[in-house]
Amino acid sequence: MGRNKFKAPKGTRDILPEEAKKREYIEEIAKEIFQLYNYQPIITPLFEKTELFIRGIGESTDIVQKEMYTFQDKKGRSLTLRPEGTASIVRAFLEHNFNQKPFPLKLFYIGPMYRFERPQAGRSREFWQIGAEAIGSIEPAIDAEIICLMIEYLTRLGLKDFTLLLNSMGCPKCRLSFIKVLEKYLHPFKGELCPDCVRRLSTNLLRIYDCKNKNCLKILRQGPIISHFLCEECLSHFKELQALLTQEGIHFQIEPFLARGLDYYTKTTFEVRSPYLGAQNAIGGGGRYDGLIEELGGDSTPGIGFAIGVERLLLHAEVEKIKIPQAAKPKVFIGLVERDLKREAFKILQDLRDASISAEMDFLGRSLKSQIRLADKLGVSFVLFIGPDEMEKGVVKVRDMESGLEEEIKKDNLIFSLKKKLSVKDGGNNES
Ligand SMILES: [Zn+2]
Ligand SMILES: [Zn+2]
Fold first, then answer.
1. Could you say which ligand is closest to the alpha carbon of residue 216?
2. Which ligand is nearest to the CA of 189?
3. Cis peptide bond N-terminal to 104, omega within 30
4. For residue 352, what pLDDT is reported?
5. Which pTM does this prediction carry?
6. What distance in angstroms lies between residue 157's CA and the mean position of ligand 1's atoms?
7. Distance of CA 167 from the midpoint of ligand 1 (Å)
8. Quick check: 301 and 276 in contact, CB under 8 A?
9. Which of 177, 211, 302, 306 is most buried per CB count within 10 Å?
10. How many Å from the N-terminal Cα to the C-terminal Cα in the chain?
């Protein structure tokens, strides 16, 4: 039997400390921005009743048709690992009578999602999303807020090379006339479309937009454009949103074929694309879902949201050489000169931590020489030597690892003195 019998399931992976620290950082920045915009955190279960996603995302979408992790529990109930965040949040919104709260209700989430797809760069079966939803307003200003929030987040992280695409998918009213025209246009091409699209012709025409087949796309791009069919309300909403984004200096491109693969989108859809991610080039995106809450059994309530793919964001950030601050290292190492003083050393270690000074010591009975080697590797600023001579004098020998200088500090004064030394170091070298 091999020693590595168990591996992470296909399409999943372990996020090791180095990457986990990066994620902590990007989550931290996200939370700062969400707070700035008054979005509150929400955590929903990793799985839901399958029916929720079928109804919410749409029976004929690729997600529901091909990509869901659906299983039966021991009582025979069909459950599905959440493939996206919005349906769950709307379910929670209805379950907790959030419609009593002042609108718009603004929420954000950070967590893993699951889709059964062919794993490739930027696409795994377990992936994380950072997302936000604003429920209860039909104003274009809330569309603008959601988009500004997303762009400001990416900008704060230091991203520059991305493109914001914008479209309006209209409402059920204006979509009706568009679908008729699109149907008429596509009918003569029936023999040239891929089998998926032929199926879409009779099930859900708009999902043709999700097709990746070059030939289908070519046919589609020469056909009618939904934004030419917008009703008065949808058109003025779209125009106002563009005016607001322009006012805020947000650059965007109108992309008339941007549908984003979900049935629930109405009016605004948007996507941020990266030039560095190959086929999986969307860092994130979102849209308005004015019909979703009603579809899931609530009163007609509008909503809009976005989600950013954390893995893709990190891949992109790497190409742009975005500086993500290094994990904090311990500042102080306790060097044990004599084994007998282990207890004393442990006490000083804990005293330092009580005083919020991150500290480390040896736990393997290393020689003093290899303790110092370890301290060097950890990158601490100071090593404290706990030896019998020092103990007798009531002092601790402190070595500045940068300069190599050593001095004796009275034990009573140790914390105060170390804090002072550390703050001088922090002040003098902020770029670390
Ligand atoms: Zn409309
Ligand atoms: Zn197709």
1. 2
2. 2
3. yes
4. 97
5. 0.90
6. 36
7. 13
8. no
9. 306
10. 46
DSSP summary character for residue 327:
P
CATH architecture type of domain 332-423: 3-Layer(aba) Sandwich (3.40)
Fold of 17-171+231-319: BirA Bifunctional Protein; domain 2 (3.30.930)
Q: Please tell me the distance between residue 214's alpha carbon and the centre of ligand 2 in angstroms.
A: 8
Kindly identify the ligand whose nearest atom is closest to the C-alpha of 192: 2
Q: What is the pLDDT of residues 214-248, one digit of tens each?
A: 999 999 999 999 989 999 999 999 999 999 999 99
Q: Where are the domains of the chain?
A: 17-171+231-319, 332-423
Q: What is the DSSP pairing of strand 78-81 with strand 163-168?
A: unpaired
DSSP string over 203-259: H-GGGGGG---HHHHHHHHTS--GGGG--HHHHHHHHHHHHHHHHTT---EE-TT--
pLDDT, tens only, 159-175: 999 999 999 999 999 98
CA of 217 to the centre of ligand 1 (A): 24
Query: What separation in Å is there between the alpha carbon of 204 and the centre of ligand 2?
Result: 13
pLDDT digits (tens, 9 = 90+) for 248-288: 999 999 999 887 777 788 999 999 999 999 888 999 999 99
Nearest ligand to the C-alpha of residue 231?
Answer: 1
- Give distance in angstroms: CA of 192 to centre of ligand 2: 9
- What does the pLDDT look like over 9-59, one tens digit per residue? 999 999 999 899 999 999 999 999 999 999 999 999 999 999 999 999 988
